[in-house]
């Protein structure tokens, strides 16, 4: 099982399809524009934001370069706090572990807190195959699940749906899986949220087993951290008897005090809030409070593959804030579905190929081309991931893989560009190079392999002839 | 065999750790650079705390130490059923003291009153560590109204100060306003699964 949605067309076709979907484009432009503005305002409030970004990147680099030691320490502290620690090499193994725990409690359902990693491993489908229903409890995920749909944005997965559609989905689907929506439901967002509250409350109160991810796992204390807005996370972490958390091995931070950096970086970069409504931390089993059986599944599933990639390794710093999506001109015009994967946008364009390796499949190989290399993602990223350099390096890897390992002209040009990008510290410089690479790749001639499809679609976003910041200044992001 | 080496009993664990070591083979594992530390001793601004809590559309009531019970009572006007944790330190009229109520029993109660462990001025956040007077986690989650009593001297300047204040606590909950969602057309709705109303009663010494 992979992180790529099975049967999805490669990015160029999917993007062309999405471009024809006017509602998706309008909603996305509104969403990304709104979140961008909020983010800029709350980031501007913080003195020393650049220092914080550097601190975040440095902590994550420290984790990655000593990942084995931090994982062993995390495991020891989790066990000392009464948690059972499991290890999973891949998606199938993680799903087997979770399903095994659920089945040992003879439950027919589990509750879920929105978590990208459980989507990545296809947990809901695996549980369904074992006769266990997995209920999503995040409002957007609930909309997506009830609508039998795919999420389109990390943060607001149902942004492609408007309120009238959501009302219809609730009226049509809720009754079949639990408490029905009130018959007089309107499309007022407050009423829709209330319908979700009533529908899920019943499930929270009877839940025996919940499955979560974690935003951070603290090695020196064994604490897991979940950052959320709605309170569905707190419900799942608190009310059930059994809690299973699936945690990617890159989620470790060394010490409790490192959280001071990430609890500042994440909410401001993500929802553009000073602080998200709820953050929960817990250390194993807390006597008399919450689940008395706690499992943690530490997941590899390609992360050690990404770790071995010297250029791409930094992608594992990602804290899934989605800031890079909201500033990406390609993402804004095509939406998350076009990436055909759990991880969309600029981070998806590097993470999916890094987790799976070049030459894995057409869809994944096409992702490093889903960018104009404008550098806006790098500028927004709270942990300073140099996405443009990784993209260029991955393009070279894809071309190599498709040529049977012999680097050709494009590959060499891209390797050179990757080196230049890698050494460039200034985004301005990256933007100039981006313009160059854009012309080289897309205007001069058509690319072989995955790049070819991308260049065929003429109504796709143009390469950055105009640097992103110039475009932004000129249009205020509306152009 | 050093700690963390193969135990021989868990092949998945051994494989993942071995893959990590392979991936890092040949990499310079130098110790990391100096980390960001919190700006020491920044004084907390209580007025800023009040403003930032209100930004989340939570309510703030400011009162003197001898007015706490009265302010809490007013915040609970018209609320059907109130639960309090042990160790609250003052009486709430007609309130049930939590003795391990079940989730369904809690669901039938409309309001809860707790203390906090700390608060953050810069972000308008209250932090619970669920000790005496704060109650277990479900208590301040299931009822629809959360009244939280915070002493002015508990208000810290920023997130780093609060992280330090609650270090070593097995469980913490950071609350910034009522539960909220922007999942429908990005329109903010206060109140999804957690309490839909948050009232912070801020207790300030007489000056
Ligand atoms: S790559 Fe950076 S900006 Fe994008 S989601 Fe990850 S942390 Fe956020």
From TrEMBL, chain B:
| Domain LUD as annotated: residue spans | 112-203
Q: Which InterPro entries match?
A: FTHF_cligase-like_sf, LUD_dom, NagB/RpiA_transferase-like
Q: Fetch the PANTHER family from UniProt.
A: LACTATE UTILIZATION PROTEIN C (PTHR43682)
**Stated name of the protein:** Lactate utilization protein C
Source species, please?
Nocardioides marmoriginsengisoli
């Amino acid at each position: 099982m992979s992180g790529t949605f099975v049967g999805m067309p490669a990015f160029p076709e999917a993007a062309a399809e999405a471009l024809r979907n006017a509602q998706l484009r309008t909603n996305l432009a509104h969403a990304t524009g709104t979140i961008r503005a909020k983010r800029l305002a709350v980031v501007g409030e913080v003195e020393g934001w650049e220092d914080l970004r550097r601190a975040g990147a440095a902590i994550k680099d420290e984790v990655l370069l000593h990942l084995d030691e931090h994982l062993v320490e995390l495991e020891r502290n989790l066990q000392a706090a009464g948690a059972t620690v499991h290890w999973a090499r891949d998606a199938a193994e993680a799903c087997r572990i979770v399903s095994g725990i659920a089945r040992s409690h003879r439950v027919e359902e589990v509750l879920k807190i929105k978590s990208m990693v459980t989507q990545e491993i296809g947990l809901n489908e695996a549980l369904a195959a074992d006769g266990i229903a997995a209920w999503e409890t995040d409002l957007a995920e609930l909309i997506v699940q009830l609508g039998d749909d795919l999420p389109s944005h990390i943060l607001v997965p149902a942004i492609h749906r408007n309120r009238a559609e959501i009302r219809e989905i609730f009226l049509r689907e809720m009754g079949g899986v639990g408490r029905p929506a009130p018959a007089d439901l309107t499309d007022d967002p407050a009423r829709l949220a209330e319908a979700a509250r009533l529908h899920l409350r019943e499930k929270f109160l009877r839940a025996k087993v919940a499955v979560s991810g974690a935003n951070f796992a603290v090695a020196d204390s064994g604490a897991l951290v979940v950052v959320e807005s709605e309170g569905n996370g707190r419900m799942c972490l608190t009310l059930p008897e059994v809690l299973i958390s699936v945690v990617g091995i890159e989620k470790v931070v060394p010490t409790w005090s490192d959280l001071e950096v990430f609890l500042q970086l994440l909410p401001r970069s993500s929802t553009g809030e000073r602080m998200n409504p709820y953050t929960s931390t817990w250390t194993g089993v807390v006597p008399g409070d919450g689940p008395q059986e706690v499992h943690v599944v530490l997941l590899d599933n390609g992360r050690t593959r990404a770790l071995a990639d010297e250029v791409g390794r930094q992608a594992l710093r990602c804290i899934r804030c989605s800031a890079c999506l909201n500033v990406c001109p390609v993402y804004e015009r095509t939406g998350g579905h076009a990436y055909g994967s759990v991880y969309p946008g600029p981070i998806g364009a590097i993470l999916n190929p890094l987790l799976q390796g070049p030459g894995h499949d057409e869809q994944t190989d096409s992702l490093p081309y889903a960018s104009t290399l404008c550098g806006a993602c790098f500028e927004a990223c709270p942990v300073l991931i140099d996405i443009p350099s990784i993209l260029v390096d991955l393009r070279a890897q894809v071309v190599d893989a498709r040529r049977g390992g012999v680097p050709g002209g494009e590959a060499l040009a891209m390797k050179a560009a990757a080196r230049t990008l890698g050494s460039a510290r200034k985004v301005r410089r990256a933007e100039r190079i981006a313009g160059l690479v854009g012309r080289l790749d897309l205007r001069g001639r058509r690319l072989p392999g995955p790049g070819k499809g991308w260049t065929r679609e003429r109504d796709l976003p143009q390469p950055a002839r105009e640097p992103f910041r110039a475009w932004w200044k000129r249009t205020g992001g509306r152009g | 065999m050093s700690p963390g080496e193969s135990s021989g009993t868990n092949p998945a664990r051994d494989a993942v750790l071995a893959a990590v070591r392979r991936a890092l083979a040949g990499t310079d594992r130098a110790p990391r650079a100096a980390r960001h530390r919190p700006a020491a001793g920044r004084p907390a601004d209580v007025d800023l705390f009040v403003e930032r809590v209100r930004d989340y559309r939570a309510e703030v009531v400011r009162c003197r130490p001898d007015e706490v019970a009265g302010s809490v009572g007013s915040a609970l006007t018209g609320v059907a059923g109130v639960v309090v944790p042990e160790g609250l330190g003052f009486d709430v009229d007609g309130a049930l003291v939590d003795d391990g109520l079940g989730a369904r029993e809690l669901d039938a109660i409309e309001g809860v009153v707790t203390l906090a462990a700390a608060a953050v001025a810069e972000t308008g956040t209250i932090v619970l560590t669920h000790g005496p007077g704060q109650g277990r986690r479900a208590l301040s989650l299931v009822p629809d109204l959360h009244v939280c009593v915070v002493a002015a001297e508990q208000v810290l300047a920023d997130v780093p100060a609060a992280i330090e204040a609650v270090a070593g606590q097995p469980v913490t909950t950071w609350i910034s306003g009522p539960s909220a969602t922007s999942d429908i057309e990005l329109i903010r709705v206060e109140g999804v699964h957690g309490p839909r109303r948050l009232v912070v009663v801020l207790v300030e010494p007489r000056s």
